[in-house]
Design brief:
heterodimer, A: Butyryl-CoA Dehydrogenase, subunit A, domain 3, two-stranded antiparallel ribbon, 7 strands, about 15% strand, B: alpha+beta, Butyryl-CoA Dehydrogenase, subunit A, domain 3, 3 domains, four-stranded mixed beta sheet, four-stranded antiparallel beta sheet, about 45% helix, globular
Chain lengths: ~325, ~375
């Protein structure tokens, strides 16, 4: 039993965090939302060079064949920085759908950062995010991987998520849709935890400098206690995320991934609400960068499975356990 | 990263499970906070101690098995899963003993720990006073130096288990001129000594689970001072993290209660209640996994610090939500006497004792988040 990241994993995480801190991601996200994807594609290639896109890809396709723990550690950092783009789809979901199939060679290009892929798994994942920008679009329907046909686009509350309406096209292979979905939900949960952590950091930073009634507002207990509750929620969501990463491939994968998604969504939402409240009116503006994190939390809360879906999955698994001892 | 238990731990778990299966009383013992129940629980502790299960993590010389932190967490899981009795010696085992291991002399350990392990001496805590609750530095009960020892005077209150316990531990002001946290000394004392008056205070369940203690020039020998005189605050705070965090609330208790809750919720036709039960399972699982994180950190040489405040808020709110959900599932019969109701009344105290949750939020905000005082 060793339930903490290894020294190497900590170093990888810290290198990634420092790298992203130097990338002006808010500007990249704003450009992405406005349709200028060039800076976002450049960051995509740089992250591929750091190995982020290759983590979940088997070694025979140029990937790192890393563990799901490595994946969630990386995605927490992507979320912390609010990096735009179909990272969960390309780095976590498509490897599970493509490996061993006729389109497996696409994984080599994904690992290198040359191909940006996206996928929809209706009904739980109805849209293919960033389909208009992606080089490869897939749809999973009735256990079949198909090449997706983009017919329209919808607008998300998070402007960086450009939602492609897609239809199933030519069938490519029979796939394990549950495993693919679990990987999408797991990495989205990690991304949400990162968003929540960044929101807490920003709110704490603001509470230390914003003065009212002659004092920093962070000295008021009403503000302190709200922020402390966010810290509690994030602290206890993280072990569920690691637990889910370890459960992948085992009998409790769906149960544990869903538990992590529920907890990370709830913690991120609490962080978002509190961060907005602590900032007051400035936080309510689109111009202030906090808005990038706020709307993304809302969008991802129902992406890769709503709370309803995940609660039902946990309940079904628990009922099974009670019935079968 | 892994959650795998090694073969030795699995063997220990099987051994514990088998022993508990053979020995846990089939019928529940009488309530702990009655004269009859206290005696029955003490009797149970004797049996545990005979089998060397009363203090598994302690060194063998004091009655333990010297097991690892991992094995201790597993022992707690098995203990609660088996529905074994409440630990009458909890205050001594989880608060005083860690203090003695950290600050006591070898002589004090030899004198105090073995009878504690066998529940021949059951210990009560004596922190709070009428004017010192959350603001524990406001302690007024005094210790006056005399030849060979000290004279204790004043009043303690909300002293858990003091009604039927044998001995107590707490902080007294040994230097009346010193301010706040300074000038406090950590004492052990006999609850049956001359000058001690104990008055049980019925709790919400009607039974005297805590008491007020009056001290009228009670003599305590020098050998019953823990740490240096005047250094009591530091000595006491070094185990406050134990009370808030790991040792007082191993996840076993919540896991066992959650399993019972899921059985109760299985037949519910109310989808909102079923959802709440699922959320309780998720929270209990989070607490369990978080404990493994903490255990790993401690095994790597880390310490329980301000982080224990995060856990204290989490387990106390989880315990309450768990029992509220169970009572709501019981519907019209919720108000009747039951294990769930007893558990609920116990859970209601969680956000208050071991430092109120409001104090914990201050600790998190100031010491972890760095917000101004």
């Amino acid at each position: 039993m060793r339930f903490q990241p290894t020294t190497e994993q900590r170093e990888f995480t810290s290198v990634l965090r420092d790298f992203l801190a130097g990338q002006d991601v808010p500007s990249i996200a704003r450009a992405w939302a406005a349709g200028d994807v060039a800076p976002g594609r450049a960051l995509w290639r740089k992250l591929a060079a750091q190995g982020v896109l290759a983590l979940g890809i088997p070694e025979e396709h140029g990937g790192l064949g890393a563990t799901e723990v490595d994946l969630v550690l990386a995605f927490e950092q992507l979320g912390k920085a609010a990096v735009p783009g179909p990272y969960a789809e390309s780095a976590a979901v498509l490897p599970r759908l493509l490996e061993g199939g006729p389109a497996a060679s696409h994984l080599d290009a994904i690992a290198l950062g040359e191909t940006m892929g996206t996928v929809a798994l209706p009904p739980a994942v109805p849209y293919a995010v960033d389909a208009a920008e992606a080089d490869a679009v897939y749809v999973v329907e009735a256990g079949q991987l198909t090449s997706g046909v983009v017919t329209d686009e919808r607008t998300s509350v998070d402007g960086t998520r450009r939602l492609g309406v897609v239809q199933a096209g030519a069938p490519l292979a029979a796939v394990d849709a549950t495993s693919a979905f679990d990987h999408g939900a797991l990495t989205t949960a990690a991304y949400l935890l990162g968003l929540g952590g960044a929101l807490l950091d920003q709110a704490v930073g603001y509470a230390k400098i914003r003065r009212q009634f002659g004092s920093a507002i962070g000295s008021f207990q009403a503000v302190k206690h709200a922020l402390a509750d966010v810290a509690v929620a994030l602290e206890f969501a993280r072990p569920l995320l690691f637990g889910a990463a370890l459960a992948i491939g085992g009998p409790h994968a769906s149960r544990d991934v869903s538990a992590a998604k529920l907890a990370c969504s709830a913690a991120a939402n609490r962080a978002a609400r509190t961060a907005l409240q602590v900032h007051g009116a400035i936080g309510y503006t689109a111009e202030y960068d906090l808005s990038i994190w706020l709307v993304k939390v809302r969008a991802l809360s129902s992406a890769w499975g709503t709370a309803r879906l995940h609660r039902d999955r946990v309940r079904a698994a628990l009922t099974d356990e009670v019935n079968h001892g | 990263m892994d959650l795998d238990l090694d073969a030795a731990t699995l063997a220990f778990r099987d051994e514990v499970r088998a022993w508990l299966g053979d020995n846990v009383p089939a019928a529940p013992l009488p309530p702990l906070d009655t004269a009859e129940g206290f005696a029955a629980h003490r009797e149970w502790e004797h049996r545990l101690a005979e089998a060397r299960y009363s203090v598994v993590s302690w060194p063998r010389e004091f009655g333990g098995r010297d097991v690892s932190l991992v094995d201790w967490v597993i022992f707690e899981e098995e203990y609660y899963a088996a529905g074994a009795p409440q630990r009458v010696g909890q205050n001594g085992l989880f608060l005083l003993a860690p203090t003695l291991f950290a600050h006591g002399t070898a002589k004090q350990r030899r004198r105090v720990l073995p009878p504690m392990a066998r529940a021949e001496e059951v210990w009560a805590q004596a922190w709070s006073e009428p004017e010192a609750g959350s603001d524990l530095a406001g302690i007024r009960a005094q210790a006056e130096k005399v030849d060979g020892g000290w004279l204790l005077s004043g009043q303690k209150t909300w002293s858990t288990r003091a009604t039927y316990a044998d001995r107590g531990f707490g902080l007294f002001r040994s230097d009346p001129a010193a301010d706040r946290h300074r000038g406090l000394t950590y004492f052990l004392f006999d609850l049956h000594a001359d000058g001690v008056t104990v008055r049980g205070i019925p709790q919400l369940d009607g039974r005297p689970g805590f008491a007020e203690i009056f001290f009228d020039s009670v003599f305590v020998p020098d050998e019953d001072v823990i740490g240096e005189p005047g250094n009591g605050w530091k000595v006491a705070m070094s185990t406050a993290a134990n009370e808030r965090g790991l040792s007082l609330r191993a996840p076993g208790r919540f896991l066992a209660s959650t399993a019972r809750l899921l059985a109760l919720a299985r037949d519910s036709s109310d989808p909102a209640l079923a959802d709440r039960a699922v959320d309780i399972w998720v929270a209990a699982r989070a607490y369990q996994l978080h404990t493994w994180q903490t255990v790993t950190r401690l095994l790597d040489g880390g310490e329980l610090g301000a982080e224990s405040s995060l856990g204290k808020i989490y387990w106390s709110e989880l315990d309450l939500a768990l029992h509220e959900t169970a009572l709501d599932l019981l519907g019209e019969s919720a108000e009747l006497e039951s294990d769930w109701m007893a558990g609920y009344l116990f859970a209601l105290a969680g956000p208050i004792y071991a430092g109120t949750n409001e104090i914990q939020r201050n600790v998190i905000a100031e010491r972890m988040l760095g917000l101004p005082r």
